[in-house]
Amino acid sequence: MEDFSRIFPYSGQNKAFNVFFYIEDGRETLPLRMHTINLTSTNLGFPKTEKLLTQIGKAFKESYFSLKPIIRRIYCMYSILYKRRRKNSVLFMSEQNTEIISNLKAVSEQMKQRNLDKEFHILYSARKFSADKRNLKVWFKELKALSQSGTIFIDDHAPLFDWLKLDKDQRVIQLWHAGAGFKSSGYSRWGHLGCPAPQSCHRQYTYGISGSKNIAHFFSEVWGINDENVLPTGMPRMDEYLDENHKKQKIAELYEQFPICKGKKVILFAPTYRGKNNKDAYYPYELIDFENLYNICGDEYVILFKMHPWVIKDISIGPKYQDKFLDVKTYPKINDLFYIVDLLITDYSSNIFEYSLMRKPMLFLLLIKFNILFLEDFIELMKNPLLEKYVIHLMKY
Fold first, then answer.
1. How far apart are CA 378 and CA 67, in angstroms?
2. Residue 298 in 3-state DSSP?
């Protein structure tokens, strides 16, 4: 029976569930015993005694006066004051962007077009959690909006909900930003590096959405919710993306904003990040041979580089290359860029699904395909040219 036992690490592999089977003496049943244990690193040497100041610092961090307990009490206070407003209040909330965009914006605008803003009080909260997590003024503003909202829409991971339990009469609806689920994330990584804790933001979702009923089960696995709670509504932002008037307007704006693209074939390099999460996200720029890539572009091509928002270090484009290379990381909507792009080069990013609607070619630069967990067979799914060498080779395809 011991052969069926397993340890499932989570929380950065600092904790784990230890699941094991055994048969109790004198019983004919097969009970399942599951214990939660804390994993700690160790060595063969004598344990070191921490300095007094280090011990005091750790104790203070874990004490009653740490930030999280204070925020929980502020939320409880606000909930008492504003709970009566929840029936007619809706919050569009992002902890990954400083403005409401993508699916959040699309749903918000649809509510206004249908005059639902006269029936509901629509609230907004947008901030970058990593930048504002110590700003109490921002906390007060967000908690006030949160406490008076009966329905909360988010479109990405909300770190606040990892440790702040919402009231039972509040609903969280996840309008996930990615168009389809093919990369392993959330609870589909159970037992692997990067798996969330058993109680996390995902477990507070009342509903989530998916692009179609055929992929809904991927999202229920990622979020740890029932299949029936994933609604196959399609992606709200697609209405704007496929609107011909919007397309014409954005093409004109893009050529005005990026005149380097006029009269050229445009290549967009938009890979996802490397690393475990937003804290250590990076991209190996050393694999890009700028000199040779620049020469191959000739007079025909220009290349736009749009790195994942989590990649802190920007790509460095020297003055010599700036007539053909352009960093567009700060441009807010990658979907709008697709209108003027002739070739997308990416790897495991979900931007491929939106781009495929333009019916233009794609190339996939796979640098670490054996280190990525997928919900589907990625190689079979793509059925496109796969590049496993330096970016320099992309122009030869």
1. 42
2. coil
Write the CA distances from 104 to 127, 238, 311, 377, integer angstroms.
14, 12, 23, 30
Tell me how crowded residue 221 is: count the other CB atoms within 10 A of its CB.
20
* SS3 state at 324: coil
Residues 6+ apart with CB under 8 A from 275: 281, 282, 310
**Tokens linked to 254:** 């893009």
What is the distance between the alpha carbons of residues 123 and 139, in angstroms, rounded to a whole number? 15
The answer to whether the beta carbons of residues 122 and 108 sit under 8 Å apart is yes
Residues 6+ apart with CB under 8 A from 72: 164
- Cα–Cα distances in angstroms (integers) from residue 88 to residues 113, 116, 123, 150, 165, in the given order: 17, 10, 11, 7, 21
Q: Outline where DSSP puts E strands in the chain.
A: 6-10, 15-21, 32-38, 89-94, 121-126, 151-154, 171-174, 207-209, 230-231, 265-269, 301-305, 325-327, 343-346, 362-365, 386-387
pLDDT in tens for each of the 397 residues of the chain?
A: 556 677 777 776 677 777 766 665 656 666 666 655 666 656 666 666 666 666 666 666 655 457 888 899 999 999 999 999 999 999 999 998 888 989 999 999 999 999 999 999 999 999 887 666 667 788 899 999 999 999 999 999 999 999 999 999 999 999 998 766 566 778 887 767 677 888 899 999 999 999 889 889 889 999 999 999 999 999 999 999 999 999 999 999 999 999 999 999 999 999 988 877 677 788 989 888 889 889 989 999 999 999 998 898 999 999 999 999 999 998 988 999 999 999 999 887 888 889 999 999 988 876 654 444 444 444 454 455 444 444 444 444 4
b vs e for 108-123, b when ≥16 Cβ sit within 10 Å of the residue's Cβ?
beebeeeeeeeeebbb
Other C-beta atoms lying within 10 Å of the C-beta of residue 354? 21
- d(Cα 302, Cα 334) in Å, to the nearest integer? 17
pTM of the model: 0.78
Residue 266: what residue type?
V
- Give Cα separations from 82 to 87, 97, 149, 247 (angstroms): 11, 26, 9, 42
